[in-house]
C-alpha cells in the first residue's frame, strides 16, 4: 500500500460548498430537487455552475446540442485532454446527488489537483475539461443520454434537436429559450471519468465505499401506442368498449412477466403511460406506453423484444384495441476500460477504502462516451440504495472518499502523461 500521506485528497470543504449550493436549484423542500432538462431550474443551476468555472479561469463552452463544458489548459497545446463530468438535470422530484455530485466533484477534483501541482512546483502534463451533459435523465425529452450521445456520434444532432416534451416544446426551442443553444466546438478528450452514486444497496450491505463499474447493461426503450375508441364511461355497454388503458394494462403485466421468467438477467418496467383524453368520464381511446427492457447480454434483449412483439397483437385483442410499436431506442451493452477499472481499484486500495466491482444497469453519460474513448463510472454508496427520489442520500464522508479517489486518479493519469497503461501499472 502507498503511504497515505502522499496521496492527493480532494478539497472536501470546496466539494461540500458546491454540493450545498447546487442543491438549492429546483429544491422541493423535502430534501429533493425538481430540475428536468432545460427547465428554468436547470438553467439557473447551469448559469451558476458556468459562473463558478469562469471565476476560476476555465474557458466555458456550449456546443450545438447544449452540452456545457469548462476547459482548463494546464499543459498547453497538444497535451492529452482528460474530461470529467456528469449532469445537472434531474428526474421530476428526484434526488440532489444523482448527476450533480459528478459535476461538482469534477470541478473540485481538478481544482484540488491544480492547487497541489502549483504548491509542489509540478508542471501538469495534461489539460482538463469539466462536462455537464444535456438531458442525461431523459425525463423531459427522450431518449436519455441525449447530449452525450450526440457528442459521441451515436445520435444525429438534428434528430435530437427535434425531440419534443409532452407539451410539444422541442429541445431546439428550449435550448434557445434558456440560452444553451451554443455554437462552440466541443472539447475532444482522450479519456473520460465520471463519479456517481449507486442506486442499489449492494455497496452498503457489503461495506464498500468505492465500486468501479465493469460492465454497462444494454437497454431497449420501446414506445407502444394502444388505440381503442373514445366513449362515455357511463352508458357505453361493457361489451362494446374498446378501452386503450385496459389494453395497456395487459401489456404492462406481460412486460413484468418477461422479467420474472429471466430473473437477474432482465429488468423491465413501464414507468410512464400517456392517456388520451385522460378524463375520468371517458373510456380512453389512446394510450402510449414507455417500456424499458434492460439486460447485460444482447441475446437476452433480442429474446425479450421478440417475445414482446409476438405477444402484442394477442394482448391488444383482449381489450378489442390495436397495438403498434412506434419507436425503439437501443443502447448496447458493453465493458468499461479495464485499465481504468484497475486504476480505480489501486487507488481505492491505497486509501484503504473497501471496494467491489459492479455492473451498471442504469444509463450514464460514460456509457455513450465509452463507445469512442476509454471511459469509466466510479460509484459511491447511496443510503438504502435510494436513487431518483427526494430522500436520496450519500454521506459527506462517502462523497469525500469518492472525491479522493477521483483526484488521485487524475494525479496518476497526469503523472503518466495520459498513458493509461502506465497509470494503471502497480
Automatic annotation (TrEMBL):
GO terms, molecular function: hydrolase activity, acting on carbon-nitrogen (but not peptide) bonds, in linear amidines; metal ion binding
Keywords of the record: Hydrolase, Metal-binding, Zinc
SUPFAM superfamilies reported for this sequence: Bacterial exopeptidase dimerisation domain, Zn-dependent exopeptidases
InterPro entries in alphabetical order: Amidase_Cbmase, Bact_exopeptidase_dim_dom, Peptidase_M20
Superkingdom classification of source: Bacteria
Binding site for Zn(2+) 1: 87, 98, 196
Binding residues annotated for Zn(2+) 2, in chain numbering: 98, 137, 388
EC number: 3.5.-.-
Stored Gene3D superfamilies: 3.30.70.360, Zn peptidases (3.40.630.10)
Swiss-Prot/TrEMBL cofactor(s): Zn(2+)
Pfam families in the record: Peptidase_M20
Enzyme class: hydrolase
Cofactor, how bound (note): Binds 2 Zn(2+) ions per subunit.
Family according to the record: Belongs to the peptidase M20 family.
Name by which UniProt lists this protein: Hydantoinase/carbamoylase family amidase
Amino acid at each position: 500500500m502507498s503511504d497515505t500521506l502522499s496521496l492527493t485528497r480532494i478539497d472536501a470543504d470546496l466539494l461540500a460548498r458546491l454540493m450545498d449550493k447546487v442543491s438549492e436549484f429546483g429544491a422541493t423542500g423535502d430534501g429533493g430537487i425538481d430540475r428536468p432538462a432545460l427547465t428554468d431550474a436547470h438553467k439557473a443551476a447551469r448559469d451558476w455552475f458556468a459562473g463558478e468555472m469562469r471565476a476560476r479561469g476555465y474557458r466555458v463552452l456550449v456546443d450545438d446540442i447544449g452540452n456545457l463544458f469548462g476547459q482548463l489548459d494546464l499543459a498547453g497545446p497538444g497535451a492529452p485532454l482528460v474530461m470529467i463530468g456528469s449532469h445537472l438535470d434531474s428526474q421530476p422530484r428526484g434526488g440532489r446527488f444523482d448527476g450533480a455530485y459528478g459535476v461538482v466533484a469534477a470541478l473540485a477534483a481538478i481544482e484540488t489537483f491544480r492547487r497541489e501541482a502549483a504548491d509542489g512546483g509540478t508542471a501538469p502534463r495534461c489539460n482538463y475539461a469539466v462536462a455537464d451533459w444535456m438531458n442525461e435523465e431523459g425525463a423531459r425529452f427522450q431518449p436519455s443520454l441525449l447530449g452525450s450521445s450526440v457528442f459521441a456520434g451515436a445520435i444525429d444532432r438534428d434528430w435530437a434537436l427535434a425531440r419534443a416534451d409532452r407539451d410539444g416544446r422541442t429541445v431546439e426551442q428550449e435550448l434557445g429559450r434558456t440560452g444553451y443553444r451554443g455554437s462552440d466546438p466541443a472539447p475532444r478528450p482522450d479519456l473520460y471519468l465520471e463519479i456517481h452514486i449507486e442506486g442499489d444497496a449492494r455497496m452498503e450491505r457489503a461495506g464498500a465505499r468505492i465500486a468501479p463499474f465493469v460492465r454497462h447493461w444494454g437497454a431497449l426503450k420501446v414506445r407502444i401506442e394502444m388505440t381503442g375508441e373514445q366513449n362515455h364511461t357511463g352508458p357505453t355497454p361493457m361489451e362494446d368498449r374498446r378501452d386503450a388503458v385496459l389494453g395497456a394494462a395487459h401489456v404492462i403485466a406481460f412486460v413484468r412477466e418477461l422479467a420474472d421468467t429471466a430473473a437477474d438477467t432482465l429488468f423491465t418496467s413501464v414507468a410512464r403511460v400517456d392517456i388520451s383524453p385522460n378524463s375520468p368520464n371517458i373510456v380512453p381511446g389512446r394510450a402510449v406506453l414507455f417500456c424499458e427492457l434492460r439486460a447485460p447480454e444482447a441475446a437476452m434483449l433480442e429474446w425479450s423484444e421478440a417475445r414482446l412483439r409476438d405477444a402484442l397483437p394477442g394482448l391488444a385483442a383482449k381489450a378489442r384495441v390495436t397495438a403498434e410499436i412506434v419507436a425503439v431506442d437501443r443502447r448496447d451493452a458493453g465493458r468499461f476500460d479495464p485499465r481504468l477499472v484497475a486504476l480505480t481499484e489501486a487507488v481505492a486500495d491505497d486509501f484503504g477504502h473497501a471496494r467491489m466491482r459492479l455492473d451498471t444497469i442504469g444509463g450514464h453519460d460514460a456509457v455513450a462516451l465509452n463507445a469512442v474513448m476509454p471511459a469509466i463510472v466510479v460509484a459511491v454508496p447511496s443510503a438504502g440504495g435510494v436513487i431518483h427520489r427526494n430522500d436520496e442520500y450519500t454521506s459527506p464522508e462517502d462523497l469525500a472518499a469518492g472525491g479522493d479517489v477521483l483526484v488521485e486518479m487524475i494525479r496518476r493519469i497526469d503523472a503518466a502523461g495520459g498513458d493509461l497503461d502506465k497509470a494503471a501499472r502497480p
